[in-house]
Design brief:
Blueprint (H helix, E strand, L loop, with lengths): L1 H18 L5 H21 L2 H7 L5 H28 L8 H18 L9 H36 L4 H30 L7 H29 L14 H9 L2 H15 L6 H9 L4 H6 L3 H17 L2 H22 L4 H37 L4 H29 L11 H23 L9 H23 L1
Helix pairs in contact: 1-18, 2-7, 2-8, 4-6, 4-16, 5-6, 5-8, 6-16, 7-8, 7-13, 7-15, 10-15, 10-16, 10-17, 11-17, 13-15, 14-15, 14-17, 15-18
């Protein structure tokens, strides 16, 4: 009877935690705007391959070398910054301090990396000097950017103990993140369309203006996070953790390892970033890239509304697998029909965006679940290491993507800053990235077959962790 009473009390506490709403409208909007402003910096960094080739004039080999150097630094920097984030002693806050200390330095370095540099009239000397300057800026930039981004991502877990509320918060935040990315990804080609493809001077001013604007809003994002958004779940360590023990704990997190395997596969099979060139040469102007892309906005809003509803009725793994299958079928149809008309491009953008817009936020919701799983498994809430390692692999995607871009444009005989491209090159701009993307989707879906955390198990796991913390606090008082 006593055991039954304890179970009933535990169930009531669990139901109360999962029914209480912790985040008000003002705080949610501050978090959403922060996501909007923050992801502009990631979107701008994603345009670096275009900037290096078209503005700085780096040869394809130089581009691959620079991306490789960045990738090597990321391999060292990201895991160490994540472990540092988890290792630091704290009491009632963990991430908030970094918004105060890193925002302005990151903004300054971001502007410096997008200056139209020219150090020497000798192309070889100039290339080496440009690469050296960029790496001097990138090394401190990336270290601070990593710990700043890790701090933000940790709020996916720490902003509320209600896992259902969490799914809604993450889906809305990812909506704003996507819109922030779209401002840069869509604004850049839209601005380019006002000028000739070989107008390098215009490209210099466009990138300088984008860098200045993104730097400004990045500072604003840090201000909002520091002043308006709360950390509600902070698990103070009983002692200073050692870095090796942090990483050993991460290796016990099977959910995280499954998701990272999927991400790694997606990184290794990467279609690069050739979409701007596709619209410039195949469709008749870069202005069509944001116009076609905006057709995904209705499905983005629909996905944001659907995700909490889907998560209450279906397992997240099953939702992801179904969305991946839909993406493959839609892309097969697009490959078969081709890009014969603007209306069809608009229609394809509309229908293909929904599964992707559902998968994206669900990925982050499942990543947050893996943090809970590791704390339940090891007793340590090492969210910093988890998000930093995930961030490293995301940047690996970008680096491999940049290398893939140089390989693709070489294979299809692309000519940079040319008025027109050959018919073979235009077909390559359409078919090659699409085929690579489908292969990547198929391979990346396989690891999710082994992701087996169910909703009921997750709720029980959260409650068990809470009880452990309460027991430790009671023992400390005694």
């Amino acid at each position: 009877m006593a055991e039954q009473t304890v179970q009933e009390n535990t169930q009531r506490e669990q139901d109360l935690t999962q029914s209480t709403k912790y985040v008000g409208l003002k705080e949610q909007m501050a978090f959403n705007l922060s996501a909007f402003f923050r992801d502009m910096s990631y979107a701008l960094m994603g345009r670096t391959s275009y900037f290096f080739v078209e503005v700085l004039g780096l040869r394809r080999g130089w581009l691959g070398g620079l991306m490789l150097a960045r990738q090597l630094w990321d391999g060292i920097n990201d895991p160490l910054m994540g472990a540092y984030f988890d290792k630091r002693a704290f009491q009632d806050e963990k991430a908030r301090r970094y918004f105060k200390t890193t925002g302005i330095p990151i903004a300054v370095l971001l502007v410096l990396m997008f200056l139209p540099l020219r150090f020497s009239s000798n192309p070889t000397t100039n290339g080496w000097m440009i690469m050296g300057f960029l790496m001097l800026c990138y090394i401190p930039f990336e270290a601070m950017h990593t710990i700043n981004g890790t701090s933000y991502m940790s709020y996916y877990n720490s902003i509320t103990p209600n896992i259902q509320e969490r799914s809604g918060i993450i889906s809305r935040a990812r909506l704003f993140s996507t819109m922030g990315t779209a401002v840069i990804a869509g604004g850049h080609p839209l601005l380019l369309d006002f000028f000739a493809p070989d107008d390098i001077r215009a490209k210099k001013f466009i990138f300088a203006g984008l860098a200045a604007g993104v730097a400004l809003v990045f500072v604003l994002y840090n201000f909002l996070m520091y002043t308006q958004v709360k950390e509600r779940i902070v698990s103070p360590p009983q002692e200073q953790q050692k870095i090796l023990s942090i990483f050993r704990g991460m290796l016990k997190n099977k959910l995280f390892l499954i998701m990272m395997l999927s991400s790694t596969i997606g990184a290794l099979i990467n279609s690069g970033n050739t979409s701007t060139w596709f619209y410039q040469y195949n469709i008749g102007g870069t202005k069509w890239e944001p116009i076609v892309g905006i057709m995904g906005l209705p499905t983005l809003l629909l996905a944001t509304w659907m995700i909490p509803w889907l998560c209450r009725r279906f397992e997240k793994r099953n939702i992801v697998l179904v969305c991946g299958l839909l993406q493959i079928l839609i892309n097969l149809a697009f490959l078969a029909v081709g890009y014969k008309s603007i209306p069809y491009l608009l229609f394809n953008s509309f229908i293909s965006a929904l599964p992707g817009n559902i998968k994206g936020p669900l990925y982050w919701s499942m990543m947050a679940d893996s943090v809970d799983y590791q704390e339940w498994k090891t007793g340590k809430r090492n969210d910093g290491t988890i998000y930093a390692v995930e961030g490293f692999l995301a940047k690996l995607v970008g680096s491999v993507g940049a290398i893939s871009t140089s390989i693709i444009i070489e294979v299809i005989h692309f000519e940079e800053n040319a008025p027109v491209q050959s018919p073979e090159t235009m077909q390559g701009l359409f078919r090659v990235p699409l085929i690579i993307g489908m292969i990547s989707t198929v391979c990346a879906m396989v690891p999710y077959l082994f992701y087996n955390l169910k909703r009921e198990e997750h709720a029980r796991m959260i409650e068990e962790v809470k009880q452990r913390m309460e027991l430790k606090e009671a023992e400390a008082v005694l």
